[in-house]
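Appendix B, Record 12. Input sequence as logged:
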Amino acid sequence: MNLNIRLFATLKEIAGASSVQIELDEPATVADLLKMISIQYPNMELSLKSILVSVNHEYAEREQLLKSNNEVALFPPVSGG
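Logged structural output:
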């Protein structure tokens, strides 16, 4: 399946784009997606350990199964005061 992954904040800066295309074999989980992103974008690997993942506008656990029509977004943690 081909997924369009939306990136925000520092992830967008690291990738140099607001979204990336990732190809995965089905069935695939959020964890599989993150592993493939770290392979294709090794400079993101460290950031991927603490991100929030949204699938169809809801936060997703690493075990969640993905489908080809899912809307996926990655958000780095927010800090500040």
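DSSP finds three helices and seven strands in the chain.
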